[in-house]
Amino acid sequence: MSSSSWFSVAIVCVCVVAVAIHLVAFFANNSAKTPSAERDDLAEMASAVRFHDFELTSVALLAVTTGERTYVDQYRVVSAALDSALLDGRTLAAANDVVAPYEAIVRTNGALLAVEERSLAQSAAGDRTGAYRTLTSERYDALKSTYEDRWREIVEKLDRADAKALTQANRRSGVLIVTSVLAGSLVVLFLVGSGIGLRRSLRRQASLELELRAAATHEPLTGLANRALLSDRISLAGRRRDRRVVAMFYFDLDGFKIINDAYGHPCGDIVLTEVARRLLSCARASDTVARVGGDEFAVFVDGLAAESEVSAMARRFLVALSAPIDIGTTTVTAGASIGSVTVGPLAAFPTAEDLIRHSDLAMYAAKESDSVKWVEYDPSMEERVLRNAELTEAIVLAFARREFEVWYQPIVDLRTGELAGAEALVRWQHPERGLVSPDAFLSVVAENGRMRELTQFVLGEACRWAYSRQLAEPAAPRFVVAVNISPRELIGFEVVADIRHALEESGLAATSLTLEVTETSLFGNTADIAPTLAKLRSIGVSIAVDDFGTGFSSFSHLRQLPVDIVKIDRSFTDGLATELEDSTVVAAVARLAQTLSLAVVAEGVEERKQLVALSELGCEFAQGYLFSPPRPAVDVPSTEDIRLIVDALDVLGPVDRAPVEQYSVVVADDVESERRLLIRGLERNGRFVVTGEGEDGLDAVRLASSLNPQVVLLDIDMPELDGLSALPLILASAPATKVVILSGHVTDGLVERAHIGGALACMEKGFAEVGAQLLRILEPLPANL
Ligand code: C2E
Ligand code: CA
Ligand code: CA
User: Fold this and answer.
1) Within a 10 A sphere around the Cβ of 575, how many other Cβ atoms?
2) Candidate of 437, 444, 484, 608 to mutate for ligand 1, largest count of ligand atoms within 8 Å of Cβ
3) I want to staple 352 with a disulfide (CB 3.0 to 4.6 A). Which of 21, 86, 231, 253 is the partner?
4) Residue 546: CB within 6 Å of ligand 1?
């Protein structure tokens, strides 16, 4: 036998001896037996009660947070069991001399039950958040600790009594104390292993199970059911024989990302928790309220009296969610788009997955709608999804077969009645379906990650086309092309590289390109896209806020963002001649734009009376079917066509376009952003055409001799050759050219030197109306005026 086997045998022998001694002691003193058995009973009861109690709390929590009937029933069963166990225990407690702590336990238990009942009542009345709060209140916690403390007191007392009983018994039998201690520990070990310990581990396992169950079925932030539990409940309802009307509501918060970005995640959490609370308060105890995504919620309503009740519920939800939410420093409003689907008692019951998907589809329809926030599911929505799948395939082919085209819609300058530029609008020439509008395919292009590719194509086409128009009509005011950019493309600088490339490749000046960014995307992601916009502006590209008025219009936002143009959404133009409110909005935007030096373009002008209203309100540009719908490049109206159309409309009156003489100007300044400001200022005035731009004096001399401009604007402080040194060279090569010296700080000395050098005048930089100021220099008023 090995040494370890010998050791095992020895242990067994000692055990046998110890148990034998114990048995002797046991029979020797019968009076010690009864209290010991009673102690065991009481100990056993204590652990059972504590287990029941833990279970009870968990079940109560589940019952009030889910409102589910089964948990409520379970709670009743367990609380009854606990009550009767506690009553039974009274005699045991008396026998073990622990009456005082035991009575404290009975009292505390009564108080705990009362709190739990109150919470259940709150939950049944629909106030689940209140119910949850009651069960997690300080008072409830305090009662729980008292309860635990008293139990611990009893158990400790029993343990001490056990030890004492053992020693007494062993002393009485006159056996060696060492053996008895050994036996005692073995007995304890045995008990721990087989009885108490097992029960304790069972208890722990049970509590873990409940915790896991709660975690597996509930969402931690709001405590609402999760998608798994929601599916379970739906399936359960589908299996019931006495089916009633059920409805599924799907919610998506509007602008939640904006709130999260603007105020931070803790505030986002407050909003989500509050939304959860409001949904719970609108739902009935038997409904399942779930959080199914970041800012997506769902309510499964099981058992409506009639299908007509669905709209009343939807209204209730809409009203509840539209109220402002206090996030501490301020209040925010997180409205929601709601989709719903109703299943009548006789209809085939869909799978949980289908029911959720249908309500989700309906929610999307609500999200896309301008006019309604709640949409009920309709099977035709399925078709759209199917079509999307087909679309994906077709779009891959479209890229390969070059089926995309760029069309253009003219933009008219209402101050002069001239064609000012055009907006590039993408089209898809589908081989079978014909012309497909961008609204039908852009989202699929984006989903397939090919937006950048499409934009590169549109940019390339648009820049080449605009440049060719400028060359074809050199006498016309400078033609600007506007390209739509989807918001996601403005995060990061890839788009800047693409634009530089398109400009370089086509030869178009950056000042002839405008990017249109929708208002919602612009103001929703300000921090993300502002650097890109700033970069684009610094190279001379203008930024237009598209669809202004449809999103979170805020004039203060306009002030902060690097934008040059505001495009008033078609919905305002529509009601312009009839709705007072629309006129007010357009007038306000036009006024604001003037103070911020922004240009205003009205979109969707279809009727003459709208044009009348616009020109009265001081809107500078207009675009719409009234002048021309979007057309393929070759069919876009020419400058002359637009003049004829405008004249025929006879709205703008005798626009003094014909006699206006435009000055050709070369601008030389080494600071790019200042050059941009100058050029934009001159062009906005309408009396100047910038024919060349340079970065230093050498550029200025070269451009003056080759272009023979009427005016050269010459910065004084430039590298290589400064303004005053370039001045005589310019006048020598282009004697008819008038030179105006620019400086950040015009002194008398500078004026004198410029005058001696042959400059017409000096102008200070940073002026507001560069065009007007230059005109005053070039066309001074007669002395007698
Ligand atoms: P948007 O930028 O607001 O473009 C104006 C839309 O209004 C165009 O629709 C145009 O055809 C239409 N429209 C113009 N005048 C009138 C009018 O008088 N009455 C009416 N009822 N409609 C008018 P379209 O071409 O279907 O484009 C729809 C949207 O697709 C555009 O809205 C724009 O957001 C987007 N889009 C178009 N091309 C591109 C593109 O190349 N890239 C990106 N990212 N988006 C594009
Ligand atoms: Ca646009
Ligand atoms: Ca627009």
Assistant:
1) 16
2) 484
3) 231
4) yes
